[in-house]
Amino acid sequence: MKALHFGAGNIGRGFIGKLLADSGINVIFADVNDKVIDLLKSQQSYNVKIVGDSVNTIERVSNVSGVNSQDKNAIIDLFTSVDLITTAVGPTVLKIISSTLAKGIEARFNAGNEQPLNIIACENMVRGTTFLKEQVLNHLSPEVQVRVEQLIGFVDSAVDRIVPPVQLDENDPLLVTVEEFSEWIVDQNQFKGTIPTIQGMELTDNLMAFVERKLFTLNTGHAVTSYYGKAKGHHFVKDSIEDEKVKAFVKSVMQESGAVLIKRYAFEPQAHAAYIEKILKRFANPYLVDDVDRVGRQPLRKLSYNDRLIKPLRGTLEYDLPNDNLINAVAYALAYRNQDDPQAVELAQSLAEHGVLATVQKYTELQDKDILDRIVKAYQAI
After folding, report:
1. Number of other CB atoms surrounding residue 3 within 10 Å
2. Among 143, 173, 204, where does a domain finish?
3. pLDDT tens column, 32-84
4. Which tens digits make up the pLDDT trace of 83-113?
5. Distance between CA 293 and CA 301 in Å, rounded?
């Protein structure tokens, strides 16, 4: 079996690519980084360092290669023979690669390959593959779209593994460090043809429960640890979460977002409380040094209507649940400043030029006047 994976960065190599290769799948990485692609072509393998309380080991990933994703003809040719497409490129890049995927699908059909092909976007994004599908279909004729619905599976997934950037090892430039924990859950109802057997890929018929569990817990908690931790003078996630005041606040936020999950999906309260504790422990992993600015970057995306801060807040309104801590978490996100992050710069400019209320309304799309007023007061208080 052969897979084309878009994105040869740390997450691509350390998480999804590794799981595919460990399952005996030949993985071809597509990326714009010439140095990485050239190394993958020549070495056809790389090392992954796995760190945690119970493990600190290096595993070799083999049976891999690479192709420059700017070589459109080479990418399109691969579509005629691959059995699986995966991505780990970041939500904003999905739209960029959609035209290449569309041309590849057309080439596959023109070559007479009518074997089912499944595409899985492994991104920090709710229903990211569904979004990718919409973008791909925009580039295809109605006739081709009919065949896509018959033969191409666009499979939504939830992914969870902390893979922070680390200093380049000149002796092993492809080495990537990952935490021990990983979770890759896919919607089994969206596959076309036989579902591939992939080590570490879990099937579910209730994906949104797991998507929102991760979004409302890991993503929410990670962002709050960054924003509140930075406000308290910390530079790294590990240092932030070891500050008892930060940890208590992050936990209280996740408990409020967790109450929404318990109400919406009937999660068992004690089990979810244990999941929260596991997340807090992962943030404190001494082997993972993650900068708060890396985690907190793109605050406008994190403050958007369906993302990690506003979506759980909306859930508290839906179920009439407490949300004081989530309100304060939103305020700390609004207070995030980073001159090297265009979104943080835009946020600061909007606050200065248009005021807090107009900025919150614009980027969060919230309509509830009481909630808006409380966010404004919370921001002004800090």
Report:
1. 25
2. 204
3. 999 999 999 999 999 999 998 777 899 999 999 999 999 999 999 999 999 99
4. 999 999 998 999 999 999 999 999 999 999 9
5. 14
Most distant pair of Cα atoms in the chain: their distance? 64
Residues 158 and 261 in one domain: no
Q: Is the pTM of this model over 0.90?
A: no
What SS3 state is found at 234?
coil
- CATH number of the domain at 35, please: 3.40.50.720
| Same domain membership, residue 226 and residue 90 | no
Kindly state whether residues 184 and 214 are assigned to the same domain: no
Structure tokens at 267: 């999660």
User: b/e per residue, 45-83, with b = 16+ CB within 10 A?
Assistant: ebbbbbbbeeeeeeeebeebbbbbbeeeeebbbbbeebb
Domain that holds residue 194: 2-204
The H-or-E segment that residue 92 falls in is helix 91-110
My answer on whether 224 and 139 are in the same domain is no
Catalogue the long-range contacts made by 342-346 (C-beta closer than 8 Å, 24 or more residues apart).
Answer: 343/297, 343/298, 343/299, 343/300, 343/301, 344/296, 344/297, 344/299, 346/300
Domain count, the chain: 2
